[in-house]
Amino acid sequence: MFLFQDTVQEVATEVVPEDSSISIIELVFNGGTGSIIIIGFLLLLLFYALFIYFERVFAINAASKVDKGFMDQIKDNISNGKIEAAKELCHTSDSPVSRLIEKGISRIGKPLDDINKAIENAGTLEVYKLEKNVNVLATIAGAAPMIGFLGTVIGMVLAFHQMATAGGQAEMGMLASGIYTAMTTTVAGLIVGIVAYIGYNHLVTRTGKVVHNMEANVVEFLDLLNEPV
To answer: Which residues cross the membrane (predicted)?
Structure first.
């Protein structure tokens, strides 16, 4: 009877699984020096991507703020021959739209094609300012997953090298631990890449709206110049 109870207790003890949970920090730091370096580099890319994103969001928000009555005031000033007042209004507004209109006002009296060309050149410069560093986000979105995958490949190579040098007698637990730890670099790379990709597309969409607004105001200004006196 006592022997049967001891056997049951031994079986119950063997069946109880051990808690094999591991924190993300432990997973990262157990990956070796190479994994730590790659994940650290990916974190730097993430912080840089977030910095660019928020900096561009604030810049685009500032560029998109145009007084609704701005063009009406420009029309009134130009119709009444108050060119200097129109320039001063553009200078006070200090936005991409106002700078384009100011460039056009400064060319009043010249052929319409010259005015249009001057505005196009100024518009190219304004678009360049709006898109500053946005392409860096696209680069991070493409490079981060590849960097993470590189870390995983390196980890896999090291894990199988350990197995080969052990003459095929390497513990499977240790081998599996090395493999899933190496996979963390791919996860980190994908996270950074997804964040940068979403941020890039959002900025492109917002910039497109600002550019469309600029073009609409320029067309309205050129139509004003084409009106018969």
So the answer is: 36-54, 136-159, 179-200
